[in-house]
Amino acid sequence: MPHRISYYHAHLYYDDEQGLAAAQALAAKAEQHFTLRVGRFHEKPVGPHPLWSCQLSFAAEDFADIVPWLALNRGALDIFVHVGTDDDLFDHTQGVMWLGNSHPLNLATFDAA
Questions:
Q1: Position 113 pLDDT exceeds 70
Q2: Helices (H), 1-113
Q3: Strands (DSSP E) found in 50-110
Q4: Quick check: 35 pLDDT over 60?
Q5: Which residues fall within 8 angstroms of residue 18, CB to CB, at 6 or more apart?
């Protein structure tokens, strides 16, 4: 069992051009307000993520500021938030929370690890 959270990821989920535009707008606003890294905007499922997505990466100590802000500003986007402990299976199954609707992940991605 991991003993330390090094970072967090918030994955913005969307599945069409309208959702992509909403995710891009939310990521841009988040980047203006917080110290975080915005990843690529995928237009296909990637890794364990069942929908198109974009990853926001931020320091563990910023959780209390960023996650409530995302909850209040997410609009219709669903957001998958997970810890970063360097144990990918744990991080994506035990250290998670959802803002909006939850979606089943493709955990087979971690079988090769």
A1: no
A2: 17-33, 63-73, 88-93
A3: 52-59, 78-84, 96-99
A4: yes
A5: none
In a domain, 22, yes or no: no
In a domain, 89, yes or no: no
Integer Cα distance of 102 and 32 in angstroms: 27
111 within some domain: yes
> Structural domain tally of the chain?
1
Q: What is the pLDDT of residues 36-85, one digit of tens each?
A: 999 999 999 999 999 999 999 999 999 999 999 999 999 999 999 999 99
Crossing angle of helices 63-73 and 17-33, in 10° steps, is: 140
Query: Phi and psi of 48, rounded to 5°?
Result: -80, -5
Residue 31 lies in a domain: no
Q: Which residue has tokens 């110290």?
A: 35
Smallest Cα–Cα separation from 74: which of 30, 15, 16?
30
Domain boundaries, position 102: 50-81+98-113
Question: What tokens does 56 get?
Answer: 């926001």
Sign of CA dihedral 33, 5, 78, 109: positive
